[in-house]
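Predicting holo structure, fe (ii) ion bound.
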Amino acid sequence: MPITPQELITNLGDLPPLPQVAAQVLRIVADPDSTADELQRVISTDQALASQILKIANSAMFAMMREVKTVTQAIMTLGFSTIKSVVIASSAKNLYSRGSVGLQERLLWEHALATAMAGRAYGKLLRFPQTEEIFLAGLMHDIGKSVMGIKFPDRYGAMIRTIYNGQGDCLDMELEIFGFDHSMVGEALLRSWNLARSIEQTARWHHEPLDAPPESRSLTALVALGNQMALNQKIGIGRPESLALPTQQALEILNLTPEQLEDHREAVLQVLEMDKSLLTEF
Ligand SMILES: [Fe+2]
Ligand SMILES: [Fe+2]
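Done. Tokens:
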């Protein structure tokens, strides 16, 4: 029997907070009366974030005619919703890179980004309305792994290295060693960060999308497909075959045959290839 959410929180203790600037940016973006000027002021209080945003605005992804030199220009170029993604991505990156698991942190982050990009690409191909939401949910789907790495550096680090060497399945080992898994930890963290419910639910159910609440089921399925594609491309830790069940459930939810999925493969790979610049921008 897995432990209850309350026992989980007791086991984990304090969770890493959402950085303050990120919380402010989310609040401004959610407020229809807010202005680009307010957003610019908040972002400019965090130099690292401001320069990250400028880099992304000037990256190959946007291929602007003219160089974007100020945060205000970047806001105008990228729009509120992309700025929100960038800010959340930067918070996620800091967290993914914080554990003491070792060399594997970079891989966890690249996996999150590749899942987000591939999931969004599937969403566009399948005409899912909220593609930016897929990107965010993809970025956050495995965030529970970083929290476990931060909280239990020795035991979790050893476990990740075992999986990295091709032995064992992540969820099984987590449940066996800790009594809970990264999907439950991810949900708890994202709830404490107060992001959208759908993002929490995707983190919780990405390994069993059919169990996701109906309103988040398609989103979770798309992230599951992104997750599969990332591992297929060897971006991440674990064997691609370990995702057979979630992928099969995702196809069922999205009403796709394996052949139809295969038809989209090339297009998604192309997007991944094109968006690769993002991997280095961050
Ligand atoms: Fe996962
Ligand atoms: Fe994953």
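The pocket of fe (ii) ion (ligand 2) is lined by residues 111, 115, 141-142, 227, 236 (CB under 6 Å).
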